[in-house]
């Protein structure tokens, strides 16, 4: 996607690339933890890269300065 915060990201070094990958996976973990905490019904399983995940991922990427042009 072309989101300015969580869209394509091509870091200049492996350290930043690893941090971005960890943020991506942690966003999934937080999303699923929230779902589980709230009852975790299979029929209501969250969309993998849906709105909730994007909100979490955006917050993590911004917090760690992993946005395009930064």
Describe, in short, the structure shown.
By secondary structure, the chain is mainly α. 53% of the residues lie in helices and 0% in strands.
Give an overview in words.
- It is a single chain.
- With 70 residues, the protein is an all-alpha fold.
- Helix content is 53%, strand content 0%.
- It contains 2 helices and no strands.
- The protein has helices at 14-37, 51-63.
- Helix 1 crosses helix 2.
- It is elongated, with a radius of gyration of 13 Å.
- The model has no long low-confidence stretch (mean pLDDT 88).
Q: Which secondary structure elements does this structure contain, and how are they paired or packed?
A:
Elements: H1 14-37, H2 51-63
Helix pairs in contact: 1-2
Which geometry do the CA atoms define?
A: elongated
Radius of gyration: 13 Å
Q: Name the average pLDDT.
A: 88
- Our measurement of the CA-to-CA distance between the termini, rounded to an integer number of angstroms, reads 18 Å
**Helix content bin:** 40-55%
What string gives the helices and strands in order? Answer: HH
The helix tally amounts to 2
Which structural class is indicated by helix and strand composition? Answer: mainly alpha
Amount of beta strand: under 5%
């Amino acid at each position: 996607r072309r989101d300015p915060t969580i869209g394509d990201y091509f870091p200049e070094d492996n350290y930043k690339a690893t941090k971005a990958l960890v943020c991506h996976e942690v966003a999934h973990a937080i999303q699923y933890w929230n779902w589980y905490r709230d009852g975790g019904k299979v029929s209501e399983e969250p969309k993998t890269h849906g709105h909730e995940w994007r909100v979490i991922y955006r917050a993590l990427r911004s917090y760690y300065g992993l946005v395009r042009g930064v």
